[in-house]
Specification:
The chain has three helices and no strands. By secondary structure, it is mainly α. Helix content is 59%, strand content 0%. The chain is flat.
Length: 94
C-alpha cells in the first residue's frame, strides 16, 4: 500500500513540473512574439506591477495641479463572477 501511495505522489509532482515548464514556454512565446496585451503589467520583463498604480496616481495629480476635470472608468469584472448563482450558471451553460 505504501508503494502505491508513493507512486501517486511522484506522478503528481512530475505532472506539476510538466505544467510549469509548458506554462513558462507559453509565456515566453507570447512575450517574444508581442502577443501580450499592452495593458498587462507584472510578471513580465521590464514591467512592474506597481506601474499601473503609479500611472493612475500621476493622472490624478496632473488633474489636480492643472485644475481640470478627470473622468476615470474602471471596468474590472473579476468580482462579478462571485455573484453568479451556480445553479443558474449551470442552466445557462447547457
Amino acid at each position: 500500500k505504501i508503494h502505491r501511495l508513493r507512486v501517486i505522489h511522484l506522478y503528481e509532482a512530475d505532472y506539476t513540473i510538466l505544467l510549469a515548464v509548458k506554462w513558462r514556454q507559453l509565456v515566453h512565446h507570447v512575450i517574444d512574439n508581442n502577443l501580450m496585451n499592452p495593458s498587462q503589467y507584472g510578471s513580465m520583463p521590464g514591467r512592474e506591477a506597481l506601474t499601473p498604480a503609479f500611472l493612475e496616481e500621476l493622472q490624478w495629480e496632473i488633474s489636480r495641479s492643472s485644475r481640470r476635470s478627470l473622468l476615470r472608468n474602471d471596468f474590472d469584472a473579476t468580482s462579478c463572477y462571485d455573484r453568479i448563482i451556480p445553479s443558474l450558471a449551470n442552466l445557462i451553460a447547457r
